[in-house]
Amino acid sequence: MLDFIIRRHSIRKFKDENIPDKDLIEIIKAATLAPSGKNSQNWHFIVIKNRNKLNEIADIVKNKELKLSQYIKDGIEKNKFISSIDNHIFFKDAPITVFVYAGPYPDNRKKILKNAKVAKEEIEEYINVEPRIQNIGAAMENLLLAAANLGYGGCWMTGPMLAKKEIEEYIGFHKDGYSLVCMAPLGVPSENEIISSTRKPIEEILTIID
């Protein structure tokens, strides 16, 4: 019953095989069927297939992170940060990468709380709920589940967002209120046997209150 969920894994190595447009469209359609607060559907998907463009975006990410590493004083932490860069640029080897933008969310509760002179701490607690981004999270999960169900693999990535502004400038997509929040390389997994990462036991993460 839950096979379509079990088939989803975080894939970082891909075969040199294209994803047909008909499958890609089905995957994006699945993403748009995700629930969103107030049915706002505040998402937009940019798909890049061009390998040269993906390599250039990877260079943007790498250069930004190397620049940021100069501000890390602790040598061990600096080396750890630099060694993680490869984990943020493997999308360049995927046949396609989906860049996901989040748009405005029609929520006036923050304004109401301010006008009601509610304590700043309470307003911050509400802001931390981030319904705008939760909508994107639901869409991303649908996208990855649909890809896995069609025989593809992908990986939900936020690491490259350290170069978010630079990537946005390179892509050149403009839509009022929209900004890049995450991305997902997609393709046919190169490994035949994919092992799931260990999950926390249900007893540790579940509380039932009668």
TrEMBL record:
InterPro entries: Nitroreductase, Nitroreductase-like, Nitroreductase/BluB
Domain Nitroreductase span(s) in chain numbering: 6-187
A GO molecular-function descriptor: oxidoreductase activity
Entry protein name: Nitroreductase family protein
